[in-house]
Every structure is written in C-alpha cells, then in structure tokens.
Design a protein that fits this description.
Order of helices and strands: HHHH
Distance between the termini: 26 Å
Structural class: mainly alpha
Number of helices: 4
Helix content: over 70%
Shape: elongated
Strand content: under 5%
Largest sheet: none
Length: about 120
Amino acid sequence: MEKQNVIKEKSFEFAKEIVYLYKNLADKKEFVLSRQLLKSGTSIGANIREAEHAQSKADFINKLSISLKEANETEYWLDLLYETNYLSDELFQNLKNKNIELLKLLISIINTSKKQ
C-alpha cells in the first residue's frame, strides 16, 4: 500500500478547483487574470510531482521552492480577482484558505529538508 502524500493530494485537488474556476471565468469573458491564475495554480502541484523524483536533496528543495513561489503568485491572482469582483466572498475565502494551507505545508517541508 502506497504511503499517503498529503501535499501531493491537496495540491492536485486545489489545481482541479483552479481549472473549474478558470472555466467559469472564461464564461464571464475574463481571460487575462484567469489565465495567470490557471498557470500558477496548477504549477504548484506539478512542481510537487517533479520533486517526488528529484535527483538530489538540493533538487528536491528547489522544486518545492518553485511550488512555494507559484503558491505565492496564486495568492496574488486570487486577491486581484476578488478585489475586482470576479470572485464571491465564499469562493475567495475557500480558495485562499486552501492556498494558504499549501503555502504552510511547503514552507514546513522545505525548512525540514534544509535541516536534515
């Protein structure tokens, strides 16, 4: 039985929600900001997946650091979409909280890895 990888699962579920949001925003004819959000929001999990098969500890930390940067950028796009009235309060808070959770997990894993 494969060991559960919480950050891998959470980042994949978050990416799915970002894809659904992108589709919804495209229906509203918002293409520029939502495209940026799509790229950064799905990149978080993609880099976490890459880190699974890192060639070294430094490579592992680097891939997760890229994920951290993408999560930070995702927070920016979520904030901007919310402040320009493209996101409801509920949707914004839900996605922002999930993104913050990913940020915290990534910071924790990176810091732990650096200490080992």
